[in-house]
Design a protein that fits this description.
Blueprint lengths: L5 H4 L8 E6 L3 H16 L4 E9 L2 H13 L3 E7 L2 H9 L3 H4 L4 H16 L1
Parallel strand pairs: 1-2, 2-3
């Protein structure tokens, strides 16, 4: 779904068994993930997972990890900040077509495998 809370607040996700919230190492992003998780819970979606995105260093990793722990969000994986994604966007290509060996693409592939096994 598109970013934001409007879709979930309308109940469009009520038939989901899992919901994945992308969380970046910024307060507003983390707070939005917390609110999304609360709404998902109200709709009866039992499995709310978080994915850390644009992680640059151990400080980002720690901030997201501590926030998730404090708000009972299960952290399913991490995607590093990767300038290659910006280059792919500028070239009008998908990241995997632009550079399938980039750190972010490899992390997304690992995450996809993890999510498939938890479905």
């Amino acid at each position: 779904m598109e970013a934001g809370l409007e879709h979930i607040s309308r109940g469009t996700g009520k038939h989901l068994s899992k919901f994945v919230a992308t969380i970046e190492p910024y307060y507003r992003s983390m707070e939005t993930a917390r609110r999304v998780a609360a709404l998902a819970s109200e709709l009866g979606i039992g499995g709310v997972l978080a994915v850390a995105n644009k992680v640059r260093d151990d400080g980002d990793r720690k901030a997201i990890s501590e926030f998730c722990a404090a708000h009972s969000l299960q952290l399913a994986g991490e995607i590093p900040f990767d300038a290659t994604l910006l280059d792919a966007e500028r070239a009008g290509k998908t990241p995997i077509d632009y550079d399938p060996r980039s750190p972010a693409v490899q992390a997304i592939e690992r995450l996809a495998a993890t999510l498939e096994t938890t479905a």
